[in-house]
Each structure stands twice: as C-alpha cells, then as structure tokens.
Amino acid sequence: MPRDSRPEPPVSEAALFARASELGGRTLGDVAARFDLVPPPDLRRAKGWVGHLFEYALGATARSRASPDFEALGIELKTIPVRRDGIPCESTFVCTIDLAGIGSVEWDESLVKRKLSRVLWIPVAGERDVPVAARTIGTPLLWSPSEADVAALRLDWEELSAVIGRGDVEMLTGHLGRHLQVRPKAADARSRRRGVDRDGASIATLPRGFYLRAQFTAKILAEHFAIGSQRHDREM
DNA sequence: TATTGATCATAT
DNA sequence: ATATGATCAATA
Q1: Contact call for residues A85 and A204 (beta carbons, < 8 A)
Q2: If you measure CA to C1', which residue is closest to nucleotide B5?
Q3: What is the pLDDT of residues A123-142, one digit of tens each?
C-alpha cells in the first residue's frame, strides 16, 4: 500500500513551492516509494520518468492536458539533471515547433515566451553512474526570466523563427542560437512534420523543438545558489 | 568531454 | 499520428 496517495493540485504558488521544498535532499527512490512507484535502473527506456514522478508527487494537472503543468497557477514544471557540481547535464526541452506556422507568429504570443514566463525548476542528480533510485533531489527554484533574459531569448527566437519562416528549416542545426536552439524532437529520424520550403510550398520534414542550452540553465541555477548563500550569510 | 542529432515511453 | 515528459549516444 502506498503511504501517500496522489496529492490534490496545489492552491497557490507558495503551497507548490513548499511541497517541492520538502522533497529536497531526498532521493528519487524515497519519493517513488511513497507512491508505490518503482524506479527504473536507468533512464534509457524511461526518459520521462523523473518528470512524471514530480508531476505526480506535486499534484500537477493530468499529463494528458496542455501546459502549463499547474494550469490554475500558470506554472511550468521542469526537472533538470545536474552533475555533482550543480551544472546541468543536459539541455532543456521547451516546446515543439509549428514549422508551417511559426513564420507568422510574434514573440509576445509565442509558446516559448509563455512557457518560460514562470518555471519551477527541480534540480535532480543526473549522472549516469548513479542508479536512478539513489539520485538526490536538490533545492527547487521558482523562476521567471529577467528582462535581460527575455531580451536575449527573444533575439534567439526571432532569428531561429525567421530561418524556419523563410523556408530554410533544413539548413538549421543545433549550432544556431545563443541560449535557445532548435533540435530534432521526434520518435526517430524518419518522423515527418509539415513545414514550408523557400517557395512557401508545403514539405515534409523532421519535427523539431526549441531547447534551452545547458549554459543558460546553468546560469539560472548558479544565480539561485549565489542568492541562497547570500541569504545564509545574512542569517549568521 | 561538450554538444548535436537521435531516440524512448505513455497517453490521447 | 501527435503531444508531453525528457535523456541517450554518436560525433566533433
């Protein structure tokens, strides 16, 4: 029998953050056991397992629904795998791209801007030499991008969107974009999605998504820790 | 070894 | 087949 059943959605941002904070310092195995879930030995065949665990443990809206994860609060949940030194192991997936329509979308109404407006980051040990069940949960961070962040993300988004919009999606590589990049987001390399070519004609191409580079999220987490230790100093 | 391109599971 | 949750693994 599970010791805890699935919690109700949190009623406020503070309640959500408090709930997430209680998980800090514990292992994924601890949390999974509370809900009678079994951690896989590794994530090769369960890449979304950590994210799903936290959706469940924090009372996120059902997986079937559209984002944000906490609809009533307008908060997006992101687990982020980190090394022992706190630096992210991976980039962070933001959203898939409507390759046929993004050329006529403005930044202010973009999915990237909306999804990143409020994010609950949960750092989790992500090194592959640690079994999933033994991986430690870090201190959560409730984040909104600074004005400088928004400006920088907008610059990347507009550049990348323009390339897609003008019909050069096939020229895009993961190299483009300072903080935001475009990479495949598909079941495999044969997947196809509707896009447009340089003549504006409809083509079938690889589905792609926006991702945040690890360097960008590293900065977010680093600033978080810096502020945390500053507060700690003042308390002493 | 950091990064890009490829891939895996589940639910709808 | 698409959307959401991401990490894997080959490459540079």
Answers
A1: no
A2: A184
A3: 999 999 999 999 999 999 99
Residue type, A35: F
**Whole-number distance in Å between A231 CA and C5 C1':** 33
8 Å CB contact between A28 and A53: yes
In angstroms, rounded to a whole number, what is the distance separating the alpha carbons of residues A67 and A145?
18
A79 nearest nt, CA–C1': C6
Query: pLDDT tens digit string along A187-217?
Result: 999 999 999 999 999 999 999 999 999 999 9
| Nearest nt by C1' to A213 Cα | B3
Extents of the domains making up chain A: 13-224
Residue A232 corresponds to which tokens in the numbers above? 């700690």
DSSP code string of A201-221: -EEEE--EEEEE-HHHHHHHH
CATH number of A13-224: 3.40.600.10
Q: A188 CA to B8 C1', in Å?
A: 9
Count other C-beta atoms under 10 Å from residue A107's C-beta: 14
Closest nt by CA–C1' to A43: C7
Conformational region of residue A224, where left means phi above 0, alpha means psi within -120 to 50, and beta covers everything else: alpha
